[in-house]
Amino acid sequence: MPQVDTHCPYCALQCGMHLDGVRVTPRDFPVNAGGLCQKGWTSGALLTSPKRLTTPMIRFNGLLEPVSWDFALDFVARKLTELQAAHGPDAVAIFGGGGLTNEKAYLLGKFARVALGTSQIDYNGRFCMSSAAAAGTRAFGADRGMPFPVTDLADADVVLLAGANPAETMPPFTQHLRGADLIVVDPRRTATAELASLHLAPAPGTDLALALGILHAVVADGHLNQSYVDERTTGFAAMWRIAASWWPERAERVTGVSAADMRLAAAKLANARNAYVLTARGTEQHATGTATVGGWINLALSLGLPGRPGSGYGCLTGQGNGQGGREHGQKADQLPGYRKLDDPAAREYVAGVWGVDPDSLPGPGRSATELLEALGQEGGPKALMVFGSNVVVSAPRSQRVQDRLSALDLLVVADFVLSETAALADVVLPVTQWAEEDGTLTNLEGRILLRRKAIDPPPGVKSDLDVLNGLAVRLGHERFPADPETVFEELRIASKGGIADYSGVSYDRLCAGEALHWPVPSGDHPGTPRMFLDGFAHPDGRARFVPVEHTGPAELPDDEFPLQATTGRVLQHYQSGAQTRLIGELNDVVPEAFVEIHPDTAKRAGLEEGDQARIRSRRGEMTALVRFAQSLRPDLVFVPFHFPGAQRANLFTNPALDPVSRMPEFKVCAVALSAVDGAA
Question: Checking DSSP bridges between strand 92-96 and strand 121-123, what pairing results, if any?
Answer without folding.
Answer: parallel
